[in-house]
Amino acid sequence: MGEVVRMHFTTADYVIFALLLVASTGIGLFHAFTGGRQRTTQEFLMADRSMSCLPVSLSLLATFQSAVAILGAPSEVYTFGTQYWFLGCSYFLGLLIPAHVFIPVFYRLRLSSAYEYLELRFNKTVRICGTVTFIFQMVIYMGVVLYAPALALNAVTGFDLWGAVMAMGLVCTVYTALGGLKAVIWTDVFQTVVMFAGQLAVIVVGASQAGGMAEVWRKAVNGSRVASLDLNPDPLERHTFWTLGVGGVFLMLALYGVNQAQVQRYLSSRTEKQAIMSCYVVFPCQQIVLCLGCLMGLVMFARYGEDSPLDKGYVKSNDQMVLYFVMDVFSDLPGLAGLFVACLFSGALSTISSAFNSLATVTMEDLIKPHFPNMSEAKATLLSKGLALVYGLVCLAMAYIASLMGSVLQAAFSIFGMVGGPLLGLFSLGMFFPWANSIGAVVGLATGLVMAFWIGIGSFVMRISASAPVPPLNSTAPLLFSNATAAAMTTAINASTVKPRPAGVEALYSLSYMWYSVHNSTTVVVVGLIVSLLTGPMKEKELTPGTVFPVFGKLLFFLPKRYKEKLCCVTPLSQKPKEIDRQPYQMAKKDSNGTPCCKEDVVSEDKETESGAAQPEDDLETAIVLPTGQQATDAVQETAL
Question: How far is CA 180 from CA 27, 46, 135, 222, 248, in A?
């Protein structure tokens, strides 16, 4: 254990780590005292809908690139090889579908909370169910993602555990509560750069010490760590091309399509085109991130071979192994270990701050504003800041609870991950199936959650009771899905390695974690459709314009119009992409009687110039009731795609 004495921070390491926290706080303070000074909910929660493509895309990347992923992906590749690299195949559809399906629907409705969509499409009950489900998963998750990297850092370096937790939690709370979404996005940009720099430094220095990248690759090939394409369709196999490629698409959709933290960034974009472009920019960035994580794992293997620090007893778990490797590589280079730790905590900061802001948004928009419609803008903004502060304190409390969980810690991760699939299914049910009704939505969501917890808890118990050796927990945490899904789903994956092949219910418990989102979202859709058909499917005239993506209308183009009307496949999106940037702010809504109507910005008299020219303002709201029935359908079709 002689090598352990080198695992300590130098003064330069502490300075670099402190600079990260100071810079993050400074960005928050800058946005708190410049521009509109976060005086409106539109600016505090939605960044005044003024963000451009690049910062939004880097923020999208940083939100789900948490510390657990930075620690987990290299360990996965070190232990099991490069099969995990094929996850990159899922990125294309996983980002293309949100860009051209979810973003147009959400952006044209001009929502603040993704769950507003559920009320427009179904009713208030479905909206509340979705909101409460989201709050539950995020609150559970926040403390865990804050505590886990601090625990790993403490175990390897002796860095004060609660000092790290308090520093991260308080810094996050301060800049999120003061600077709002704009501060969160710009700190994400800064933290993304730090993450790239930290990982790149480890790869360059580690590869150099191993004899160059050619030597790293040669050792990986000789050690059977470079995997070939595995086309095994068995869903019980942990990682194959199909589990990573197909299952990964659904995981991506759950994160980049309907998660409030990401939807909020899309809606903060200046235009719909900028929001769509942010998805396209994320694609190459995600590929780079995936490559960096995999290359770090190969460099680790080149350094240690089969004789890992875990086997030697230098560390107790796989997530600590990456930090041990970093401290080992940088033992003679003061400051670089601090850079990687700053990279590690940048992942945690970006993820947690996104959680604070998205939780404050859904609480304000979904739970408070509907009951206090006449609340002044000043009070609403102050309350939003207070909510961000409260959630920050809740995060610290959850970190303390996470410290008491012990082996239940992985179960807490699973609770978060298991909710993503059912929420994806709920949004998909509303967006792609026009005849789905509110009863089907509620029953489908409930069934999906029950199935998710049943499988998750069953696989957890099965893993505990299995006598066969199992892979280390965090070796399975995917690089992209850290914050929400991937590190969360690690409780289920181990059972897939148990032999002989399980049957019946045990086979369900052994399902690869990459299929979780597919299974849970499909359950919601199937059950929701069956219940909707049994209880009376929705009709065309009952739909709020713009809430259904016309996928069936396009697929069934060959049918006569009367048949498409019976299948409820006529209503298109509300506006063409080229028109939306030239037309006034418009948001679909339902009035107190449930009649579809549309909230459209008009210009108040005091906002007109002397010549009578209108000055567009995003926060002007005047309800204009659209014609109902067939007239409403015809009116919407005039602006159809």
Answer: 11, 8, 19, 51, 31
